[in-house]
Design goal:
The chain is an alpha+beta fold and about 325 residues long. It is about 45% helix and about 20% strand. The strands form 2 sheets. Strands 1-2-5-10-7-8 form a 6-stranded mixed β-sheet, with no helix packed on it. It has a 6-stranded antiparallel β-sheet with strand order 3-4-11-6-9-12, covered by helices on one side. β7 and β8 form a beta hairpin.
Length: about 325
């Protein structure tokens, strides 16, 4: 069993590439990597077979990596799900165009195809990522979690072919003893695998995710207490009541706000854009009508603001991966 002190020494040890970056301020050669443009910024496309100098993979579906220090990690996307842990120090992590300062003990989970970058890490800034393939998340894996948990919804979205893959969650886990312990054990198991390493890693990942759900729910409760004291609640109630007719400009005008500012506080306090909140309210109403009324699907579409039924069916399929009729058959109650 690898002692934590030995683990700490291994993680702080300079890799050959890090020594080069530290001594000569060298830049990585990205000329052979394919890229896409986001505005005028290249976003590099990482392949699954690119293995950095520091990586450990005793499990066929999971690899542990340490992010190189003394160099900027340029914007990039990849086809896997990434679970990150700030082992020590801190770093500036930009996902899309939003910068987050990750503190020691914090965790993030990042969907595939989400562009992200990391600012130059210092000597004590150790960022560990677990690279997880989508096939790893099977039905048996999800049996550990509630269907309503934030991680279950995130992972279902992440492995779905029907949805865009641009989500991420940052967990304020810096004071959580169990999250730290599970990550330490995962790192030890990757660097110095035991006889039953794969089973150990599977169990530790499940325990870690269960604890992260608790962290998220506790954080969500605290945020809700803060929201109740802010202007966000009346805005959400206004959207709930007027989702069929309101738009960003009219809603901002109703609350005497600049539309850009309204967009900012909605994204900050709910994690969703104005358009996404409208869509979610529509679908809450739609699913309620499907479960509790005999209205036809066309009538429900019209009542909730969809004039084009073809477009309605398309959006419903994207959201629920089934047709409205299938949803009704699966969820209807006796009426």
């Amino acid at each position: 069993m690898l002692p934590y002190k030995t683990l700490d020494n291994i993680l702080h040890q300079l890799e050959p590439e890090e020594e080069l970056y530290k001594a000569h301020h060298a830049e990585p050669d990205l000329s052979d990597l394919p890229y896409i443009l986001s505005g005028n910024t290249p976003v590099y496309v990482m392949a699954a077979d690119i293995v950095p100098p520091f990586s450990h993979a005793p499990h066929p579906s999971i690899m542990m990596r340490k992010t190189n220090r003394f160099i900027n990690v340029y914007p990039h996307v990849h086809p896997w799900i990434e679970l990150g842990y700030m082992y020590s120090g801190s770093c500036d992590h930009t996902i899309f165009n939003t910068s987050h300062t990750l503190k020691k003990g914090q965790v993030f989970i990042l969907d595939s195809e989400a562009p992200h970058s990391v600012e130059n890490l210092g000597e004590n800034d150790i960022l560990i990522t677990m690279i997880m393939s989508k096939p790893y998340f099977t039905d048996s894996f999800f049996n550990h979690f509630s269907e309503e948990s934030v991680l279950s919804r995130f992972l279902v979205n992440a492995i779905s072919k029907q949805t865009s893959h641009d989500n991420y969650i940052i967990f304020n886990s810096e004071k959580n003893r169990r999250v730290t312990m599970f990550f330490l054990e995962l790192m030890c198991e990757h660097i110095s695998p035991s006889m039953n390493s794969q089973d150990m890693i599977n169990s530790l990942i499940s325990l870690l995710f269960l604890e992260l759900i608790s962290v998220f729910e506790a954080d969500k409760a605290l945020q809700q207490m803060q929201l109740n004291k802010s202007t966000i609640v009346p805005i959400l109630k206004y959207i709930e009541s007027n989702y069929k007719s309101c738009d960003l400009k009219s809603t901002a005008a109703f609350f005497n706000m600049n539309p850009n500012y309204l967009t900012t506080i909605l994204k900050r306090d709910t994690g969703y854009s104005f358009k996404e909140l409208i869509q979610k309210q529509r679908f809450r109403t739609i699913t309620n009508l499907l479960r509790n009324t005999k209205l036809s699907v066309e009538e429900i579409a019209f009542q909730t603001g969809y004039e084009n039924t073809t477009y309605f069916y398309k959006k419903f399929k994207e959201e629920f991966d089934c047709s409205p009729k299938q949803y009704r058959n699966q969820h209807k109650i006796n009426y």
